Amino acid sequence: MTDRSRNLAILGLQWGDEGKGKLVDLLSARFRHVVRFQGGNNAGHTVVVDGQSIALHQVPSGALHPECFLVVGSGVLLNLEVFRQELDLLTQRGVSVFGRMLISEKAHLILPHHIALDQWREGSAGTNKIGTTGRGIGPAYEMKAARMGVRMGDLKHPETLIERISTGYEEVRILLGSAAPLPSIETITAQLMDYAKPLLSLIGDTQTHLWNANAKGEPILFEGAQATLLDIDHGTYPFVTSSNCSIGGLFAGTGLSHKALGHVLGVAKAYTTRVGAGPMPSELLDATGDRLRSVGREFGTTTGRPRRCGWFDAPITRHAVRTNGVDGLGVMKLDVLDGFDEIGLVVGYRDGMGGRVSQLPSCAQDWLELQPEIKMFKGWSQPTRGVRNFDQLPAEARSYLAALSDAAEAPIAYLSTGPDREEGFVWPEHFLTGLI
Ligand code: GDP
Ligand code: IMO
Ligand code: MG
Q1: Rounded CA gap, 226 and 253, in Å?
Q2: 182, 116 in Cβ contact below 8 A?
Q3: Are residues 36 and 73 in the same domain?
C-alpha cells in the first residue's frame, strides 16, 4: 500500500451524529493531518477519552493527538466567537493547537446577521420549519454563493473589512427591519477583529499545505460533518443543511483531487436518528423509539434537542454508500440495542399503492407516503457494551449485523460498542487492520 492510498475520508451515512467524532479521534493517531472540509458549528462531534467527554464543533477531532496537524479547509464556515470558546476548552484540558493548525484563508465567516436571519426564518416559518441548528449556516453559505461572503483572509485587511461586511449586512437589515435588533456594523467588525487577533497567525493557504503533505506521502484523514441525507444535493431536500456533506464536498472544500483519496469509511449507527424536521420513514413514535433515545442518550450535541429515533434504515444507508463510494462501514452504538427482545431492520419501502420503492424520492412530498418494510431479528441476552473482539459477539448480534451489511451493500470495517476509544474493534480482515 502506498502512503497516498492510506488517506482516508470518514463520512456520515445517515442524518448526522453517527459517531464520526469518535472514529476520527480513534484513527487520528495514525495520521499526520486531520482535515475538516465543510460545515460549521452546526456540527457537534463528541470525543470521549478515559470517561471524559469533549464536544468539538469546528476544530478537527484529531485535536487531542498532539502530533496531529489540524487543517480547517476552504469549504468550512467559522464562527470565531465559538471557535475561541472551543480553543479555551481545549487549553483547559492542556491541549494547544498553536503551531499545529492552519485555517484556510478562503473559509467563510459566520456573522451575527447570518445567525439573526437563520433564527428569524425558523421563527416565522410555521409548519415549513427546517429545524436548523440556528447557527447561521444557511445564510452564511448563501452569502458565499451570492459573492457577499466574508472570508478568513479578509481579516488580514482590516481597512476593507467594513466594506466587505456591509453588502450582506445591509440586505439582512432591510429584510428584517426593526424585527431583529442587529448590532451596528462597526460593533460587528470590532468584535470580529477582537476574536480574530490571536488566530491571524493560523490563517494561510491550506490547499498548498495539503498538496505538499500529500506529495510527501504524509497520511491525511478527512473528517466529514453532517451526513449524506443532509447533503444539499443528495439528501432529503429541503430538509438538509447548506453544504455538500458527501464525498464531492471533500474535493471542493480542500482543493485536493480525487487522486489524493485512498479509502472511504462510512459511519452509521446500528439504528437511525435525525434532529430537526423532514422525512424519516423508520421513525418510531412509540415506547421503542423512546427507549432508543434514552439508552442511546440521543440528545443533540450542539443544541440539546431530542433526536428522533428508529430502526436501522437500509435504503437511506445504501444510497449514502453508493453516493460516497464507501469501502467499509463503521457501525456505531450496537450496545444501545442490548436487551431488546427484537430488533428491526428497515429493508425497503412501499409506496401509497403498496408497490416496492427501489429509489429514494427526490421530492419531500413523495417521502410522506412511504411505509417502511421491517424485518425483525431476535435480540441478544448477553450485553455487547465494551466488547473488543468478534469472538465475543453474541450469535444473534452477528446475524443482525450480517443482514445490516448486506442490505446496506457495504462490508463492516469497525464495530463500536461504547463511546470510549477502547470500546469497539476492527472487523476481522478489513482495510482498517493496522490503522487502529
Ligand atoms: P458525530 O456528530 O457523528 O461526531 O456524533 P455525535 O458526537 O454528535 O453523537 C454520537 C454520540 O454517541 C456521542 O455522544 C458519542 O460519545 C456516542 N457514541 C459513539 N459511539 C458510541 C457507541 O458505540 N456506543 C454508545 N453508547 N455511544 C457512542
Ligand atoms: P454532525 O456533524 C445532526 C441538521 C439540523 C437541521 C438541518 C439544517 O454533528 O453530525 P443547519 O443548522 O445546518 O442549517 O440545519 O441539518 N443538522 C445536523 N443534524 N448532526 C449534525 O452535525 C447536523 N448539522 C446540521 O438539525 O435538521
Ligand atoms: Mg454530532
Answers
A1: 14
A2: yes
A3: yes
Last residue of a domain, one of 178, 202, 226: 202
pLDDT of residue 4: 53
**What pLDDT is attached to residue 376?**
98
Task: Please give the residue that has the higher pLDDT: either 127 or 76.
Answer: 76
Both 81 and 140 in one domain: the answer is no
> Residue 266: inside a domain, yes or no?
yes
Lookup: cell for 201: 497567525
Q: Work out how many domains the chain is built from and give that number.
A: 2
pLDDT bracket for residue 3 (50, 70, 90): low
Around ligand 1, the residues with Cβ closer than 6 Å are 12, 16-22, 44-46, 48, 301, 332-333, 335-336, 416-419
Average pLDDT over residues 273-301: 96
431 found inside a domain: no
- Residue 191 CB-half CA count within 13 A: 16
Q: How far apart are CA 177 and CA 28, in angstroms?
A: 47
Which set of grid coordinates corresponds to residue 302? Answer: 450542539
Q: Tell me, yes or no, whether 167 and 156 share the same domain.
A: yes
Ligand 2 pocket, residues with Cβ under 6 angstroms: 12, 15-17, 42-45, 130-133, 135, 137-138, 225-227, 230, 241-242, 275-276, 301
Please indicate, yes or no, whether residues 39 and 92 belong to a single structural domain of this protein.
Answer: yes
pLDDT given at position 366:
93
pLDDT in tens, 190-206: 999 999 999 999 999 99
Q: Whose CA is nearest to atom 28 of ligand 1?
A: 419
